[in-house]
Queue: 2 jobs
Job 1
Amino acid sequence: MVQLKINKLCMQFGDRLLFKADALQFAKGDTIFLQGDNGTGKTTLMKVLAGLIPATSGELVWQGQTHTKWWQKSPQLGKLVYLHQHPYLYEGSVKYNLSFAGRHQKMSGKLLAQRVEAAAQMAGLEHLLDANASNLSGGERQRLAIARAWVIQPDLLMLDEPVSNMDKESRRLVLEMVHTLKRQGTGLLVSSHQTCGITALCRQTWQIENQRITSGPFNTEQGSVQEESLHVITS
Ligand SMILES: Nc1ncnc2c1ncn2[C@@H]1O[C@H](COP(=O)(O)OP(=O)(O)OP(=O)(O)O)[C@@H](O)[C@H]1O
């Protein structure tokens, strides 16, 4: 079972305590809605879990191994993906962006080409495959970033405000991609200020409140879920 365990995590910026968590677990197949008010540390937590910044103290255990040497190549590379709401894209075409990570995995050229084509279609970007990624609109960039993750099928995917500033059609396309990943077993950790189609896929919640992260069950009745979710969930 692919999993990331967090023990006695503490995050501070200078003297300011951001959050503490005794024990949390994020595993393949999990679907977790990360909730918390503005500034409580949701993005920071995701960056810590992705190994992009170190926690002040505590332990992250990936597949039974503690990962404390932050300057070394992360063992989670390609298996755990973090998508920021303003995603970083590589210099080059949409096609280049979609194929980049797959080239560094043990994926055959034929399979990679098939997945890139399928991802472009799912993301509604097939007509932009040769366009320069830096010229894409905000919504197209977010769709491309999720499609890029879809190509490599990570074990764990962290989505930071995945549908913020997206129109209805973009939200539908992104939901479809995320839902496919979920069906294939990818674990999801989703931060969002409002319930949406993607949070409706979640069955657990991590709540950051009073500088503590607590976990519990989440059912979609806890929030009013927007109508676009239901079509995908039941189909
Ligand atoms: N490198 C840093 N140095 C100092 N403070 C930081 C740093 N990075 C983030 N912070 C602060 O930590 C707090 C949490 O930031 P973070 O972006 O993780 O919150 P968030 O819960 O994702 O917020 P939002 O919901 O508004 O996106 C903020 O007050 C932010 O200013």
Note: Residues 1 and 208 are 26 Å apart (CA to CA).
Job 2
Amino acid sequence: MAPQIDPPQTVEWHGKQVPVWSMRTVDYGLLLSQDPAEVDNVLKACLEDGYFYLDLNNIDGRRMLGDQQETLKLMHRFFEAPIEAKNEYGLISSHLGYEPVGNRTGAFGAGTKDGYEMLKVSRDEIQRGSPKVPSPIKNNGDLGLLENSIGSCNTITKVILSALSTGMNLTGASRFENSHRNDRPSTTTLSMMHYLPSNDLADGKKAGHQKHTDISSLTLLFSEQWGLQIRPPGTCGAREMGFVAPKPGCAFVHVGDSLRFASGMKMQSCIHRVVPFDPTEHRYSIAYFLRAEDDTMFVDSEGRYVTAGQWHDEKFKAFTDPWQWQAMAPKSMILGGMVEDGDDDGKNEQPKLVPSPKEAKAELARAEVSVQA
Ligand SMILES: O=C(O)CCC(=O)C(=O)O
Ligand SMILES: [Fe+2]
């Protein structure tokens, strides 16, 4: 059920009033015509905020909203299947396959685990026509639907890229679209996520999705449910965590590291996480990660000249590392070099689920054994 939003925009969560951040809305139909005011609007959103709502409730966008509803039905069917069927091939590559709950760090940071399972389908694989997908999808003729969804998301994100190139006066080969060509290998993927009710997750230490910025150039995110939080950039560093209210007919779009780097650090990479808003609820989200061609070069947040493929592989490893190793990676890796101002909740509070030193040591020993295995 939609929660009550009180003016000024806040919502009650964990016994506190938490901000609900407002943001620009960009009209997809106007972007398609390169409407000068809308090009300016989307450019400002990416330069100043790093995110915006994309209004798809028009003749050009509604088919994607339809694909989203069909994809949601597919997700319900898939995630209800037995774990053996879902995990038939496991995670085949970083951008293709199934990942069970608890594989990564969770919403409350060090010592916690994530609370979602995920199925990813790579754009390159679906273009080749025979992606390796588990039998609950293959046996139900769902591949056509996934191709439609991926195709729609691909078009939408490229329309946005094109408007951004125009807004930044980029021409010819330097336009952003030219480093996101369909026929060149990339880790672009559609990711379907199911967050389990945190009340059901046995030890209480599994919840949500850790704070991060995305590897991608642009992320097109659909969820009808609460739980996504962002830290808007401020003049001294990102402000406190607040919710993104789901908006009917709209997707939430945000800039990831690759576009921030490709723009010479002018655009903001969006710091975000997912928390259990309602601990009794199953939450479903669909994210399309448009990523640059693997061999695109840019200067990363550590000042290194790297390829998009290398940035992806290093950051993906950091995401999936045990938190003790994650803590040793450069801070700029998980947050793409974005600077924070103070704590997530605006004051000096310890995360609630930090393990004792004894628990941490035992967990590190377990992680070392499983990596060697
Ligand atoms: O589930 C969501 O709403 C966001 C997921 C996310 O941040 C990600 O997969 O990178
Ligand atoms: Fe993300």
Note: The chain has a mean pLDDT of 89.
